[in-house]
Amino acid sequence: MADSAQFDESALVARAKAGDDLAFTELISHYERRIFRLAKHITQSDEDAEDVLQESFMKAYSNLEGFQGNSKFYTWLVRISVNEALMKLRKRKTDRSVSLDEELDTGEDTVVREIAVWEETPEQKYSQEEMRGILDQAIGSLEPIYRVVFQLRDVEELTTEETADALGITIPAVKSRLLRARLQLREKLTRFFQKKGDDVFAYL
Amino acid sequence: MTSLPTCKDFLQELSEFLDETLDAATRKELEQHVNDCPNCWVVMDTTRQTINVYKGMEPQEIPQDMHSKLMDALKKKIAAKKCGGHHPEAPAPDNS
């Protein structure tokens, strides 16, 4: 595993493009965990996520010469992986197609049901495994159009523009879906993390 | 905003408020609202924590056999490229 302090993405990409296959294996080792998590969150399946992981890196390897370096290699890799993951998702959902172009009802009020403050350090209340389970389950329960945007913006930390570009949707669509996703996750997590015996009216 | 923001206005702008991408005037108005409105303050604070908790979660290591399969697939790809990738088109014979 490459040490992130010594990890120099652009140098590795330059070496890989020049035919140094070892450099490409270092890129894999550095990013495989994040790509697998991304694929798992989108497809909600270990098996599909493993396929996506492999197909994404193989595509990246085959198309490396075409990578222009206008964006970071990781952003480019994420874009490939998202496309692969969405293809898997569409294949599986034969009854109902998964479309990222789906029109969003922006006129509808944003729903906020749970208003309760959280424990100051919810991560101390749960083990890391429990915490991971809670977060994964919450993200998995979102509609794909929301969870993909949340994943790219808030987990992978792509910019709004990069997310719009990766998904082929508009910037306003990214923003409105991100807001919905964040609020829905907030609702779900409040059930786990809310401070017991406390409610907002105590502050009034 | 021409009039004082409502809770609904605040919610609509919540993402941009948290991402600090609003213009200074709108931000100031929303700050005033959230400081005076306990409900909006809780929603803002717990949404911020929601984002942070996801950002702070390190991805798990992938199983060793998954990593090995990935490396094997790459080796095959490299081998295929090395065997099949060296057939540059022959220049057209100049017989004229």
Notes on the structure:
The complex is a heterodimer of chains A (204) and B (96). With 204 residues, chain A is mostly helical. Chain A has 2 domains: 84 residues, RNA polymerase sigma factor, region 2, helix turn helix motif (Rna Polymerase Sigma Factor, Chain: A), CATH 1.10.1740; 75 residues, Winged helix-like DNA-binding domain superfamily/Winged helix DNA-binding domain (Arc Repressor Mutant, subunit A, Orthogonal Bundle). Chain A is built from 9 helices and no strands. In chain A, helix 1 packs across helix 2, helix 6 packs across helix 9 and helix 8 packs across helix 9. The N and C termini of chain A lie far apart (52 Å). The model of chain A has no long low-confidence stretch (mean pLDDT 86). The N and C termini of chain B lie far apart (78 Å). Chain B has 5 helices and no strands. In chain B, helix 3 packs across helix 4. Chains A and B meet through helix 2, helix 3, helix 6, helix 7 and helix 9 of A and helix 1, helix 2, helix 4 and helix 5 of B.
Summarize the structure.
The complex is a heterodimer of chains A (204) and B (96). Chain A has 204 residues and is an all-alpha fold.
Topology, pairings included?
The complex is a heterodimer of chains A (204) and B (96).
Chain A: H1 9-17, H2 21-43, H3 46-62, H4 73-92, H5 122-125, H6 128-140, H7 144-155, H8 160-167, H9 171-193
Chain B: H1 7-12, H2 14-19, H3 24-36, H4 38-55, H5 64-84
